[in-house]
């Protein structure tokens, strides 16, 4: 404690005795301004003010010794200490080389605003006039007042009396004089007549409306002028502006809601269309399945029908096979009917025509005139069939006419009586060639000689079949043919011809 007292005494002596200070003295001054003793504090503040004004290079030492923070704590101290602290702070601020002109302009207007609020009417009016003239001359000052809170400060001052009157205890010294309000309105009026971008002043409209109705004459007149000018510029009160903004927001919200409803409606329509499309596709698919099912059913029916037909054919074939096995393709009495003895009573006589039908489903056998027979092949395939008549003696003649031939192929010939011709037989393929011979034309079978002679257009051919010593049948492959006659002749029409060639019949 004793050491602190000694140090304070030294600082006091230092502060009162020294007239010139530099940066080396600032630490002692920083300590001195914290002293509760005004005799130490006030001289030290004055020395610091002198340093920041006259020796700006020492301002860095002011920051280093935390003098700015100490000055902030003195702003609400004694009147003289507050003034000196403000002065030092303003100088430091001006020495800070602020780039923004609007911010610098505020530093210039702040003292004038302080003067306008002076309770000394003469000083207040001078401050109002000075600031009004500055507003008229300097655009930066106008911009600074409009953008750095001047309107809020004016509103505070104009409404202060109402706030004071609402308190239970107040003195006449608390009431702000009318000349201060008038001075501020003069500055506002000058702003309205010279500046642009007046929207920040809209917050004054409600209090100006109130002053126009209830204020003193001078306040009333200035309020009317300001309101008229603001209205001409389209500036509305903040509440009106708020209402406009609310209406705008509501309108935008309504538009947004309508758009959302329209979007939702379109989405529902799209969803409905999609459902209809899916339903149509489903119905189409269903119809397609039904069609396929019907086609499959038809195909199955046709297949079953075909299977039945094939079964029927197989049954017929089986019957034929059974007949082949038992050698009863035709009943024996009927065969005997067509087998003729070698006596002379049957010479020059037509014999009835009948065939062994090995493919009833394809071969149609019909009568023409009681003698001639017509054979029609229903399907386009190869068939070979034989006559029922067994040739075993005498001379026989068969005359046939072919029509609608398959690739021009048709022939007549003879086949072993013991050989059963199957369905779809082709006489020129094995094993059929081992049991039959075929010729396209007229045949003459001479059982007396055992020869088969061929005629084309009535002319005997040199090639003939010899050594036939067994029972045979005449057979006929073709598409459509008419068997005109089957005769047993009294004599032969064949004879020996030049260059004739005999082909021996198959040996058993």
TrEMBL record:
Q: Which InterPro entries match?
A: ARM-like, ARM-type_fold
Q: Where is the composition biased (Basic and acidic residues)?
A: 245-290
Q: Return the annotated region ranges for Disordered.
A: 236-290
Q: What is the protein named? A: Uncharacterized protein
